[in-house]
Design goal:
Layout (H helix, E strand, L loop, with lengths): L2 H33 L5 H15 L1 H12 L1 H5 L4 H32 L7 H45 L2
Helix pairs in contact: 1-2, 1-6, 2-5, 5-6
């Protein structure tokens, strides 16, 4: 794969992390609004957008990482790096499992239904927020910098091999 394409891939991944942060902030703010009865049409549309984002874009983001970022790092001789990547892979499973419980509640809220148990919703949101925040911190502080550094070394090696 061309280096420019790899560099662009990181820009897309970083942009998605920003979107994830924004949607997590909205999710964190929804409970007080629900508990105070502020669940008007605009609020329901916002909940629908958050549900759609985590049910599609966020899942695609994780698939991209699994396919294009993690495999090279798993080949490392650095056991701590490999362990961190394996932790992130497990996180993806936990995030998906938690989201599969949270998503129907989010859809119900978005549709104005009233069957959602607030204690269950609060717990699911708290777990989801913690999982996602911890996951992103590990990616942004260790995994992405390491993947970028490896890409830079690879690009430099290609440039040397291509030089006359």
């Amino acid at each position: 794969m061309k280096a420019a394409t790899q560099t662009d891939r990181f820009k897309v991944l970083d942009a998605c992390h920003q979107q994830i942060h924004q949607n997590l902030a909205i999710l964190a703010e929804c409970l007080p609004q629900l508990e105070s009865g502020e669940d008007g049409n605009q609020f329901r549309q916002q909940m629908a957008a958050v549900e759609a984002f985590f049910s599609s874009t966020s899942r695609q983001h994780h698939q991209e990482e699994e396919k294009n970022i993690f495999p090279n790092l798993l080949l490392s001789d650095d056991s701590e790096l490999v362990q961190a990547v394996q932790t992130l892979q497990q996180d993806h499973n936990w995030i998906e499992l938690n989201w599969s419980e949270l998503a129907p509640m989010m859809r119900a809220i978005a549709q104005g239904e009233d069957w959602v148990d607030m204690a269950e919703l609060r717990h699911s949101i708290e777990v989801f927020l913690n999982l996602c925040h911890d996951h992103i911190v590990l990616e942004e502080t260790l995994i992405y910098p390491e993947a970028r550094a490896r890409l830079a070394v690879e690009m430099a090696g290609r440039a040397l091999r291509a030089a006359p």
